[in-house]
Write a structure and sequence with these properties.
This protein has 310 residues and is an alpha+beta fold. The protein folds into 2 domains: 154 residues, Fructose-1,6-Bisphosphatase, Chain A, domain 1; 112 residues, 3-Layer(aba) Sandwich (D-Maltodextrin-Binding Protein, domain 2), CATH 3.40.190. 34% of the residues lie in helices and 22% in strands. Strands 3-4-5-6-7-8-9 form a 7-stranded mixed beta sheet. The protein has a 5-stranded mixed beta sheet with strand order 11-10-12-16-14, sandwiched between helices. Helix 3 runs antiparallel to helix 4 and helix 7 runs parallel beside helix 8.
């Protein structure tokens, strides 16, 4: 591991609570009142994490299988999570994390973790969803379509602040509820009037997608301009925001950290987010199935073509 990354990795063991101007303990609720500052500091945190991971991507990476060779964790995932978690915990003291990696090398002692009950429901009223490397397969294979994503989520109402950083493309997405979405500082507004037949659609296609859903995907091929697979929620979200994709759909479902920042960004840019039945997303569940689209009409058409029952 590079010396600079090693220092950052271990320096975060001692995470101190933030203080306000009067020297008192500052809560995460108080920190969220200043939206520009929140987004700036969240962006700084994910950029540090992503930059460290990018440096590691250029070396001989160690990797471990979690659920077979299609599901892996790398040294980059662990380093990225520890750096991002340490920075974000200082900024939002006391806010529990729902983060992808549970390895002891990725979790900092003393930082609260959101409790998930046996039914897969998040018990915390609010939490920070963190994906240290979304698109680990791309990352491990040396590709650019991977990113770091973080979002503050209210269990009952959804994400309020979110950031995505794609180091391989030097792309930063920032969004806050009621404050719009920016990509590299530029305010984004998705084009109106697009329809499914005029769009490219992105879809998660892989070993864990059930065969019947892969068959249903053929319908999208016929009703759109084509279907692409990036293997990256953050990469697909960025392509929806840029107008390359009219929609993207996660056929096997993922976790809150895969979608929280991206769904907020797309909605704040004027797009639409729903589940595979066209219903609003529920943020009290760890597992989610998601459609993100440039507008509601495209999202509903994707849902109708797939016709996947709950």
């Amino acid at each position: 591991m590079h010396a600079a990354i090693r220092c950052a990795f271990f320096a975060l063991n001692d995470v101190m609570a933030s203080t306000d101007e009067k020297g008192g303990v500052q809560t995460w609720q108080g920190s969220l009142r200043d939206t520009p500052r929140v987004l700036e500091e969240m962006s700084s945190a994910v950029r540090k994490a992503g930059s460290a991971a990018l440096a590691l991507q250029r070396t001989e990476l160690s990797r471990t299988e979690k659920a077979g060779h299609h599901d892996i964790v790398t040294e980059g995932d662990l380093v990225s999570q520890r750096i991002a978690m340490g920075s974000l915990a200082k900024m939002l003291p006391g806010l529990p994390f729902a983060a992808e990696e549970s390895d002891e090398q990725a979790v900092i002692p003393g930082i609260p973790q959101a409790r998930i009950n046996p039914q897969g429901l998040v018990e915390a009223e609010a939490y920070l969803a963190l994906d240290p490397i979304d698109g680990t397969t791309n990352f491990a294979c040396g590709g650019p379509d991977w990113g770091v994503a973080a979002a503050v989520v209210q269990r009952d109402t959804g994400p309020t602040h979110g950031v995505i950083y794609l180091p391989g493309k030097d792309l930063v997405v920032e969004a806050a509820r009621g404050h719009g979405c920016r990509v590299n500082g530029e305010l984004i507004q998705l084009k109106k009037g697009q329809v499914l037949k005029e769009c490219l659609v992105a879809a998660e296609i892989g070993k864990f997608v059930p065969d019947d859903r892969l068959q249903r995907l053929l319908g999208l091929v016929h009703h759109s301009m084509g279907v692409r697979n990036l293997f990256s929620s953050t990469g697909n979200t960025a392509d929806v925001l840029s107008g390359v994709h009219g929609a993207w759909v996660h056929l096997k479902g993922g976790s809150v950290w895969d979608f929280a920042a991206g769904s907020l960004a797309v909605e704040e840019a004027g797009g639409f987010a729903c589940d595979l039945q066209g219903k609003p997303l529920k943020w009290d569940k760890l597992h989610m199935e998601v459609v993100l689209a440039a507008n509601e009409e495209i999202a509903k058409d994707v849902v109708n073509v797939l016709n996947i029952k709950a």
